[in-house]
Amino acid sequence: MDDRKSQGVGSTNREFIRYDQVEKRQTYHLAEAADAAAAFDEDYAIRTCDLGRFLRGGEADRRAFATELGEALEAIGFAVLEGHGVDPRLYDRAHDAVLELFTQTPLEEKMRFRAHRHGSVNQGYFPIKETSGIHPDLVEGWVFCRRAFDLGDDPAAPPRLEEFWPRPEAERVFREMCLAHERLILPVMQSLLGHLGCDPHLYDARLTGTNFGQRLNYYPPLGPDEEASGAGRLLGHEDVDMFTFLPAPRIEGLQVLNRASMKWIRLSPPPGTIILNTGDYVQRIANDRLPSTTHRVSPPRDPELRRRPRVSFPMAVYLWEDEMLEVLPGLGPARYPPVRAIEFHTRTTSKFYGDDYAVEK
Predict the structure, then answer these.
(1) 10 Å Cβ neighbour count for 22?
(2) pLDDT tens profile 199-209
(3) What CATH number does residue 287 fall under?
C-alpha cells in the first residue's frame, strides 16, 4: 500500500477539499474505524417516496410526489423509492451475475479491462484497494458506461462487447436493469425541477439517451487482516453525478451523513426498493438547494455478515461531456458560474484518480 493510501485510513475529507466544486462544509473521516467518536442516529428515518404516484397517477399525484421527493432530498440528499415498477427479479439476477463476474473471472483476465477514462468517466475494472488513490477500499469495482451496452443507439455500429466485457453474455443481464432504471430518469428529474419551481421538462432532451455509469461492486468477505487494517469497504464520499439509483443491497453497510446533525445514519431499506441520492451536478445547478450528501460503506455490525460477500450495483446518471452545468433559473443569484460537464466532472474526480485526470478548458 502506498503512503497516500496508508494515510487515507485516518484522513478526513478536508485534506482533499480543494478538488470540490460545490460547497461542502462538513468534515468527516473517510473510514468509520478512524473516527472512534463517530455519532450515529438510530432514529432518523430517510423518507420513503412512492414513485408510482408519478408513474401511474394524475396531475395532482405527480405534484404531490414532486413535493414529497423534493423535501426529502432538500433535507438530506437521500430518499427511498417504492412503487417504481422495476421487476425485483432483475435485482436477483444482477446480484448473482455480479458474484459470478468477480469470482469466476481470473484476475489476469480482469486486469485486461483495467479502468481508464472514457470521456468524463473512469470506466473498467478496479482491483481491490484500487477504487481510489486516497484510500485502500476493501472492494472490487467495475464500471460500464452507456457505450458498453448494446442499447440500439446506433444500429449501424453496435458496440463491440468484447472490448468492455470479459463475459459478453453478462451484458444482457445488466442491460435489462439499466433500461428499467433509464425509464425512471425523466420522472425523477421532472419532479425535482417542478419542486424547484422550474419547467419540469427543462432537462428532458439532455437526459434522454444520456450517459450513465453502471457500477458493480463486489465486497469480499472480511478476514482478520482486513478488519485490523481499519480501512472502510468504500470511503466516505459524495457522488459527482446528477443522481444515483441504488437497488437496496442485501447486507448492511451503507451509512449516510446528516449534515444538520453531523451524525451517521445506517440505511438498510426493504428489498426491492431503490435508494436515490443527489450528486454534485444537481447541487451545482440547484444552487445548493439539493445537497450532494456524504455516504460510505462500512463493515456490518454482525460479525457473521462480515464473513459473507456483499454486492451492490448503483447506476450513476450523468450528462454528456459537452453539456453545460448552469444554475437553474429562479433560484436567486447564482453561486456558481457555468461549466462544461467534462471539466466539472474530471476536476472533481481527480481527487481519486490523480491531478492529471482533470480535463482543462
Answers:
(1) 22
(2) 999 999 999 99
(3) 2.60.120.330
Q: Is pLDDT at 59 greater than 80 in this prediction?
A: yes
pTM above 0.85, yes or no: yes
Comparing CA positions, the residue from 109, 136, 132 lying closest to residue 122 is 132
Q: Give CA–CA dist 55/51, Å, rounded.
A: 6
Q: How far apart are CA 210 and CA 182, in angstroms?
A: 9
Helix residue ranges, H only, the chain: 3-8, 52-56, 59-76, 88-104, 107-111, 170-195, 224-229, 280-285, 303-306, 341-353
| Amino acid code (one letter) for 288 | D
* Set of cell numbers at residue 284: 451545482
35 pLDDT more than 70:
no
Number of domains in the chain: 1
**Per-residue pLDDT at 1 exceeds 60:** no
What pLDDT, on the 0 to 100 scale, is given for residue 76?
97
Please tell me the distance from the alpha carbon of residue 274 to that of residue 141, in angstroms, as a whole number: 20
Residue 140 Cα distances to 7, 27, 132, 222, 284, angstroms: 20, 26, 11, 13, 30
| Residues paired with 49 in a beta bridge | 81
How confident is the model over 293-316, as a mean pLDDT?
Answer: 97
Mean pLDDT of the 80-97 span:
98
Q: What is the pLDDT of residues 124-169, one digit of tens each?
A: 999 999 999 999 999 999 999 999 999 999 888 889 999 999 999 9
User: Residue 113 in contact with residue 121, Cβ under 8 Å?
Assistant: no
Is residue 32 pLDDT above 90, yes or no?
Answer: no
Kind of pairing, strands 295-297 and 254-258? antiparallel
Residue 198 phi, psi (nearest 5): -100, 170
Could you tell me the sign of the dihedral formed by the alpha carbons of 342, 348, 350, 355, in that order? positive
Q: What is the pLDDT of residue 3?
A: 66
Residue 253: what residue type? G
Burial pattern 251-287, b for ≥16 Cβ within 10 A else e, equals: bbbbbbbbbeeebbbbbebeeebbbbbbbbbbbbbbb
For residue 331, count other CB atoms closer than 10 A to its CB. Answer: 16
Domain of residue 23: give its range.
3-357
